[in-house]
Amino acid sequence: MSSIFTKIVNKEIPCYKIAEDDSFLAFLDINPLAKGHTLVIPKKEVDYIFHLDDTLYKELFAFAKKVAPAIEKTIKCERIGITVIGLEVPHAHIHLIPINSLYDMDFKQPKLKLTQEEFAAMAEKIRGNL
Ligand code: 5GP
Q: Is the pTM of the predicted complex or chain greater than 0.90?
């Protein structure tokens, strides 16, 4: 069965898209730790990030490097934190999270509840800063 992220890639389920090319997609996390919390994925479905081939692995991080400054321009923050967890969705992905302290990277804290309109407006702003 396809991962939920492959379904997003195939447009079977929607996302708030930030950036896309032939191999990668960036979109807002639906349960964000902070406004602008973005996921960056390879379109190819590979569960574990360290099982990506070297080229795709490096290109995934290079794609994230293009997206992060646009998030930083949009959300006032100290910097963009980057982390990989992968315990919930078996499709390799990088989290890009606007942070001001170590606590802002704590996945145990409650997630933000944003409206569809807030997600859409945030994605549009970030896209505008790419
Ligand atoms: P992880 O696999 O890194 O532990 O967590 C997966 C992340 O994907 C979580 O932060 C979760 O909120 C996010 N997520 C799970 N399902 C969806 C979805 O259908 N759409 C979006 N945009 N994010 C999702």
A: yes
Judge whether 45 and 129 are in contact, CB under 8 Å.
Answer: no
Contact 57, 67 (CB under 8 A): no
Instruction: Point out which residues pair with 96 in neighbouring strands.
Output: 38, 82
**In this predicted structure, what is the pLDDT of residue 1?**
85
Contact 37, 109 (CB under 8 A): no
Domain that holds residue 74: 4-128
Number of structural domains the chain divides into: 1
Return d(Cα 18, Cα 71) in angstroms, integer. Answer: 9
Among 13, 25, 88, residue to substitute to test ligand 1 (most atoms within 8 Å of Cβ): 88
In this structure, what CATH number is given to the domain that contains residue 113? 3.30.428.10
